[in-house]
């Protein structure tokens, strides 16, 4: 039902006509606005409570230098206090059961179930200047991945030595995987205490608010980052020989001498030599366009076939120098990139290749 109010001037002429909804709908609309405002106000108070709790109790009053046992008991005390605070707040309890805000409440409870220092994916929220375990001062973030992140830290317990700390996500399956990794690293440390075989060294590990943290010696750049900082210039052939032998020896010792592994090593060696990636990665579903029953299946006279004939060139045309050692390297790469896996060189055969003869003489 709609009502029309007509306002006239003194002469009886209509001047303004206003249309409005009925009074009941108008009051209902105002009521909804008031309730929405009340919910927003409660949400604001909840967020402010979380911020005040984090700032006042988990940062300001925690001493910078304390014993590990004190740190653990303090974290337990903080968690229990937080739980008591949430249980004793009727406003937050009402807010959790409010149907209009149900999805937000579920998300809120998921956040509160973890440490208040975690993001949605379980990463520890940290920044430069933060201190882990009252000892490791964060300097920079080195990288981030599916399991967690790696940060560069100053170890104040070792005279300011720089280390790398791997901070695992506060997620159950990643914590379990981290414990398995720790067992492997401890085995490596015990069997090679003097780092004769140049395996990565774990210095220690600890728990930080549910995050498994593994402390490593700080190593150099990854291969890609090194090449990038070197303006994508190729490696010297002597360096390629050293790295190629180590890769083949390591993979072969693991019992992974599969033809696909040999192909991957061949790709790595040609990238070392040229300074750039030869085979660009792409989406896996595109392989169905060119492969059938794991065999290459494409029409030579199609547009793709013409592209291959026009753009692809023999492997030896990538050679920068045609001396004996370069010839040996490209012979090894050619045999590693043999298309037919049955004909492809094995890692046992690769380790006996003439390209590595200079290493054996030393």
TrEMBL record:
SMART domains: S_TKc (SM00220). Residues 80-97 have a biased composition (Basic residues). Its main location: nucleus. One of its GO terms (cellular component) is nucleus. ATP binds at residue 166. One of its GO terms (molecular function) is protein serine/threonine kinase activity. It is found in: Nucleus. Residues 136-362 form the Protein kinase domain. Residues 80-120 are annotated as: Disordered. Keywords: ATP-binding, Kinase, Nucleotide-binding, Nucleus, Phosphoprotein, Serine/threonine-protein kinase, Transferase, Tyrosine-protein kinase. It comes from the Eukaryota. Its EC number is 2.7.12.1. The keyword RNA-binding does not apply. It is an enzyme of class 2 (transferase). GO terms for biological process: regulation of RNA splicing. Belongs to the protein kinase superfamily. CMGC Ser/Thr protein kinase family. Lammer subfamily. This is dual-specificity kinase. It comes from Sousa chinensis.
């Amino acid at each position: 039902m709609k009502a029309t109010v007509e306002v006239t001037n003194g002469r009886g002429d209509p001047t303004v006509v206003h249309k409005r909804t009925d009074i009941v709908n108008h009051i209902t609309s105002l009521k909804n606005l008031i309730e929405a405002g009340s919910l927003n106000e409660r949400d604001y108070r909840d967020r402010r409570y979380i911020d005040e709790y984090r700032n006042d109790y988990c940062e300001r009053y925690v001493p910078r230098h304390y014993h590990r046992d004190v740190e653990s008991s303090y974290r337990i005390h903080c968690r229990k206090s937080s739980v008591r605070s949430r249980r004793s707040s009727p406003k937050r309890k009402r807010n959790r059961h409010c149907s209009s805000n149900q999805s937000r409440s579920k998300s809120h409870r998921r956040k509160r179930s973890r440490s208040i220092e975690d993001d949605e994916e379980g990463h520890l929220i940290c920044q430069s200047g933060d201190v882990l375990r009252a000892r490791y001062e964060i300097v920079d973030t080195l990288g981030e991945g599916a399991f967690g992140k790696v940060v560069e830290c100053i170890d104040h317990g070792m005279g300011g030595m720089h280390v790398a700390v791997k901070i695992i996500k506060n997620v159950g399956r990643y914590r379990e995987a981290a414990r398995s990794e720790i067992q492997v690293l401890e085995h490596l440390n015990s069997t090679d205490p003097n780092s004769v075989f140049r395996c990565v060294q774990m210095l220690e590990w600890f728990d930080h608010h549910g995050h498994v943290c593994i402390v490593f010696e700080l190593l150099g750049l990854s291969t890609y980052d090194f090449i990038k900082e070197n303006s994508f210039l190729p490696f010297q052939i002597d360096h390629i020989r050293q790295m190629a032998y180590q890769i083949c020896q390591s993979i072969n010792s693991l019992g992974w001498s599969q033809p696909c592994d040999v192909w991957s090593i061949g790709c790595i060696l040609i990238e070392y030599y040229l300074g750039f990636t030869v085979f660009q990665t792409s989406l896996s579903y595109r392989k169905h366009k060119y492969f059938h029953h794991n065999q290459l299946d494409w029409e030579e006279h199609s547009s793709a076939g013409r592209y291959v004939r026009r753009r692809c060139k023999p492997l030896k045309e990538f050679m920068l120098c045609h001396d004996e050692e370069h010839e040996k390297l490209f012979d090894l790469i050619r045999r590693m990139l043999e298309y037919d896996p049955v004909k492809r060189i094995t890692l046992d055969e690769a380790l006996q290749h003439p390209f590595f003869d200079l290493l054996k003489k030393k």
